[in-house]
Design a protein that fits this description.
This protein has 280 residues and is an alpha/beta fold. It has 2 domains: 201 residues, Rossmann fold (3-Layer(aba) Sandwich), CATH 3.40.50; 65 residues, Orthogonal Bundle (Helicase, Ruva Protein, domain 3), CATH 1.10.8. The protein is 35% helix and 18% strand. It is built from 11 helices and 9 strands. The strands form 2 sheets. The protein has a 7-stranded mixed sheet with strand order 4-3-2-5-6-9-7, with helices on both faces. Strands 1-8 form a two-stranded antiparallel ribbon. Helix 8 crosses helix 11 and helix 9 packs across helix 10. The longest helix is centred in the C-terminal third of the chain and has 13 residues. The protein is elongated and about 65 Å long. The termini are far apart. The relative contact order is 0.11.
Length: 280
Amino acid sequence: MNMQTIPPLNAAAALKRFGLRPSKGLGQNFLQDSAALEKICEAAEITADDFVLEIGPGLGSLTRYLAASAREVLAVELDGEILPALAEILRPYKNARVIHADILKTKMSELVSAPNYIVAANIPYYITSAVIRHLLESDLQPRRIVLTIQKEVAERICATPGDLSLLALSAQVYGEPRLMAKIPAASFYPAPKVDSAILRIDMRPQPLIAKEALPRFFQLIKAGFGQKRKTLRNALAAGLHVSREEVESMLSAAGIDFMRRAETLNMDEWRLLCETPKQN
């Protein structure tokens, strides 16, 4: 089956048919626009040899398009009540499999057997940061992640020095993020209050920070952005629980002006800070 032959899925009608309602608690907004669903598959560059992991398939609108492109699709759904409807909708797609689980409590190695897989999903806004971090730091990382998320969050993840955030640095240290397309709120049922975007993250062969230095990297950026309106000297002193003089010495050793703010530092400067010996 190719994507052009996939019938439209009317989420409101499907929910009514199975006696269901969208769960606000689970952040359910069902993407039903065919053009948007095709764009997600195109952004993921799925081939007939690919294993695709989907998070939160809902009514299976995207799952059907993934199954038409991939060798196998494994969809992980948290909502037990929607599983019978999902099974019925996916009946024609023999290469799509659904399991009932919480992705945030599941190791990737329990779901996939090799690292050369793709994650493609339309995820609830409220778990965006947690899902991205879980995937990036997983024991078996995907080679590519394609997520439909809130547009402003996607733009923040793709930011450049001068406008960086904790989330942007956390993503960019592991992969190369790109905003692939924008999806209007009207493409979903029920329509959310904000527009969405397709975010693609291509994983790097190795993180930009040496693996042994990653704990220090996250300690530093969490401290730096913990009080982002403050200068680096004050934010790091408060976050690391050391004196401002110690922070000044550390920043000076890395060649960084202590009056700068965390969002202005680039990845190379954070790396230099990671390599600077801790002050006693």
